[in-house]
């Protein structure tokens, strides 16, 4: 158990799960999109849907999408800042009972027109988990250096990607592959002890059947 588990995160707002966790989900979503969003459709479920105004969950989610950390004082005015920056934000509540009470789904459009949808949950103490990327089930905590690929599920794709990382002496601490079916679209999440250099990211992106590659720094 670390200090973070005992004292919780440094944050703006009353709740580590509903405020700090929400800000981290928004920030993780922005990082996965890998560009500045110009539009975000946010759907909150469960406890998030019932208490989002009182706990500032809505403002925290928007703050994260703007690139703000949970302890950034601008969190309180995130909706106003989003409007000033021309970011179109819509938020709605869902009555569907989620698997986890603190659940949010964010559909984003970036300035280039790129679209991405993520679903995340706040686990408490500021910790989060991204559980879906573009409809594919994943498990992403954001606590390590991470490389994510979206690719077609074909033989040899994973081996080619990990071989490129091995040539650069990148040590893999954890790797999981999620797929919707044989030869369908898949998501590979590779956690590493150090960041993957940009030239390796570009080389991995050139592998046949890989649609996109994203690298994330620890939150």
Automatic annotation (TrEMBL):
- For the ACT domain, which residue ranges apply? 146-219
Supply one GO molecular-function term: metal ion binding
Q: Which cofactor does it need?
A: [4Fe-4S] cluster
Top-rank taxon: Bacteria
The UniProt catalytic activity note for this protein reads: L-serine = pyruvate + NH4(+)
A Pfam family cross-referenced in the UniProt record is SDH_beta
Q: Which UniProt keywords are present, listed alphabetically?
A: 4Fe-4S, Gluconeogenesis, Iron, Iron-sulfur, Lyase, Metal-binding
Q: Which GO terms describe its biological process?
A: gluconeogenesis
Q: What SUPFAM superfamilies is this protein classified in?
A: ACT-like (SSF55021), Serine metabolism enzymes domain (SSF143548)
Of which family is this protein a member?
Belongs to the iron-sulfur dependent L-serine dehydratase family.
PANTHER family hit by this protein: L-SERINE DEHYDRATASE, L-SERINE DEHYDRATASE, BETA CHAIN-RELATED
Please state what the protein is called.
L-serine deaminase
Q: Which species is the source of this protein?
A: Megasphaera hutchinsoni
């Amino acid at each position: 158990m670390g200090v973070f588990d005992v004292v919780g995160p440094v944050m703006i707002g009353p709740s580590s799960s509903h405020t700090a966790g929400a800000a981290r989900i928004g920030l993780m979503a922005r990082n996965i999109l890998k560009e500045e969003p110009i539009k975000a459709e946010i759907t909150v479920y469960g406890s998030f849907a019932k208490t989002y105004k009182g706990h500032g969950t809505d403002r925290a989610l928007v703050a994260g999408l703007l690139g703000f950390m949970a302890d950034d004082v601008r969190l309180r005015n995130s909706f106003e800042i989003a409007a000033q920056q021309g970011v179109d934000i819509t938020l709605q509540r869902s009555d569907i009972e989620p698997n986890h009470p603190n659940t949010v789904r964010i559909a984003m459009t970036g300035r280039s027109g790129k679209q991405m949808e993520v679903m995340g949950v706040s686990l408490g103490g500021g910790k989060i988990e991204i559980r879906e990327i573009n409809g594919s089930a994943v498990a992403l905590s954001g606590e390590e250096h991470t490389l994510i690929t979206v690719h077609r599920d074909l033989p040899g794709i994973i081996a080619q990607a990990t071989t490129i990382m091995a040539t650069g002496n990148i040590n893999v601490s954890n790797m999981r592959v999620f797929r919707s079916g044989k030869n369908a679209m898949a998501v590979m999440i590779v956690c590493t002890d150090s960041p993957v250099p940009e030239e390796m990211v570009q080389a991995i992106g050139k592998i046949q059947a890989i649609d996109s590659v994203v690298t994330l720094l620890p939150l």
